[in-house]
């Protein structure tokens, strides 16, 4: 693919939360395509393009750790936001000191992934070379719009543009196949924020991600 990119990301901790876990956070075994897309968008995002994740390389062994995290007990209500928009003076605020809750989380420890992706032009000028160059320049310099993270904002992601092939050896290189179960692919923003899933299978440390519209991606 002429306009594909490769990026290595790594970090001390990661948590790619399973949506079926309503209270305590439990991470998937590896980074999800939606989380990988979030990393790329943190580095380079334009309304004219849409990132598509093609392949995920898993370099390090899958290790879990149990921690306790401070979280907000509730969200800012939409009613308060609407009220503030209407009168222009009502406070739009929520304080962690008043709503702190401590919850257990099962997170990943010491992770490193290789992301292969390309983008599709959504609208405007079809100048793929310009977008590739802008992404590559930003990634090469370590620039980003906001700091990329590994599932949760308190788990920052380090990243490095890979301009040839990945040189890291996968811990699963000699493992023919491992079924990781159903995994969140991404959110269908055009269909009432519907979550869509695919069967993630890792072969020799690599997960091939089907296109979002493929038959094997289901709601």
TrEMBL record:
One GO MF term attached to the UniProt entry: endonuclease activity
Name of the protein described by the UniProt record: pre-crRNA processing endonuclease
EC number of this enzyme: 3.1.-.-
InterPro entries found in the cross-reference section: CRISPR-assoc_prot_Cas5, CRISPR-assoc_prot_Cas5_N, CRISPR-assoc_prot_Cas5d
Family listed: Belongs to the CRISPR-associated protein Cas5 family. Subtype I-C/Dvulg subfamily.
Superkingdom, natural source: Bacteria
Pfam families per record: Cas_Cas5d
Organism listed in the record: Desulfonema ishimotonii
